[in-house]
Specification:
single chain, alpha+beta, three-stranded antiparallel sheet, flat
Length: 68
């Protein structure tokens, strides 16, 4: 897989888990992230400013294992 193909593949692994509402506090957002981490330990979570959402993707070790 070329670097370009690999980048495209990673983008499709991203999943929007929760759209952040303008009135949600940081504390509420962190609580949601914690709940998601407990529910899906195989995924890593991050804040996406473009989507204004909590997103996830498979952990890097999970991706590497699936390629072998």
């Amino acid at each position: 897989m070329t670097k370009s193909e690999e980048k495209k593949h990673h983008k499709t692994d991203k999943k929007v888990e929760h759209k952040i509402k303008p009135d949600e506090t940081i504390e509420e957002v962190m609580k949601i992230i914690k709940q998601l981490q407990e529910k899906h330990p195989e995924r890593e979570f991050f804040l996406d400013g473009d989507e204004f959402a909590i997103c996830s993707r498979p952990k890097k070790s999970e991706i590497d294992a699936s390629r072998n």
